[in-house]
Backbone:
């Protein structure tokens, strides 16, 4: 018997056009938190990913407690891309030295190769468990795991660790690249069928038109967009001078009437990670 398609594993027909629209970076700062919630409640996004080491994680968790119906995952965080506003691990620094730079903070984006070369898998597990339990101890119920700034965890052993943690805690895992996607399909689990979109890869000029065309061209099967909405207010422009325009333009499209109308016209079904979690845990 041929393997069931990702669409079928998710309860849809093989020819369905399915799109996961997940808001990443929930918790990074308040401007983003507000935009993430609005993009789900008033826009086309369907789930989000929470960064527990970040300064506004407490605010994000407060928003989640007030919205138990809002599906969210844990954006496992070993990287800080805001060097002017650094954050460290949740674990005591002495327990995870291989994950830290010389200041005791998490590595910046430009030092990801150094992080991946040095990180001990036992210390990665210690920090990942701390981030998961920060959410569980707050009385919240995540549905999936993914990673901040690291495609499929950045290393095969990190991906395998994360998949094992997902199995332990009853969660799903995001997979971006072919090796991990092939691995999941071999285990009878749904994985995206097409190239993964990270919204930071899109040009700002003509971005709304590019999004619209991607919806028109969306193939049958399971696709995923990792989007990064932000309101673009004063806080955003101060703490995130290189990223706020990306976040503001994402928010504008996600909450636009055009986006919702295109989904209707094209017959595209947007899903969040709770649908994927059901397939992982049945």
Residues:
């Amino acid at each position: 018997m041929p393997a069931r398609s990702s669409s079928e594993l998710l309860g849809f027909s093989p020819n369905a056009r399915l799109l996961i629209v997940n808001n990443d970076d929930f918790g990074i700062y308040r401007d983003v938190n507000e935009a993430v919630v609005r993009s789900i409640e008033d826009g086309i996004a369907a789930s989000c990913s929470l960064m527990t080491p970040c300064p506004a994680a407490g605010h994000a968790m407060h928003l989640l407690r007030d919205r138990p119906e809002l599906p969210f995952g844990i954006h496992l965080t070993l990287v800080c891309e805001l060097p002017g506003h650094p954050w460290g691990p949740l674990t005591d620094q002495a327990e995870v030295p291989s994950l830290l730079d010389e200041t005791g903070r998490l590595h910046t984006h430009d030092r990801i190769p150094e992080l991946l070369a040095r990180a001990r898998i036992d210390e990665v597990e210690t920090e990942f468990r701390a981030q998961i339990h920060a959410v569980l101890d707050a009385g919240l119920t995540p549905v999936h795991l993914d990673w901040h700034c690291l495609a499929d965890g950045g290393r095969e052993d990190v991906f395998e660790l994360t998949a094992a943690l997902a199995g332990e805690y009853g969660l799903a895992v995001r997979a971006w690249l072919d090796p991990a996607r092939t691995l999941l399909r071999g285990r009878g689990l749904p994985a995206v069928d097409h190239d993964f979109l990270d919204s930071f890869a899109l040009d700002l000029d003509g971005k709304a038109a590019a999004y619209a065309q991607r919806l028109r061209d969306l193939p049958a099967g399971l696709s995923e967009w990792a989007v990064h909405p932000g309101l673009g207010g004063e806080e955003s422009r101060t703490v995130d001078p290189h990223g706020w325009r990306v976040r503001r333009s994402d928010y504008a499209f996600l909450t636009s009437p055009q986006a919702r109308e295109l989904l209707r016209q094209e017959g595209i079904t947007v899903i969040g990670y709770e649908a994927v979690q059901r397939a992982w845990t049945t």
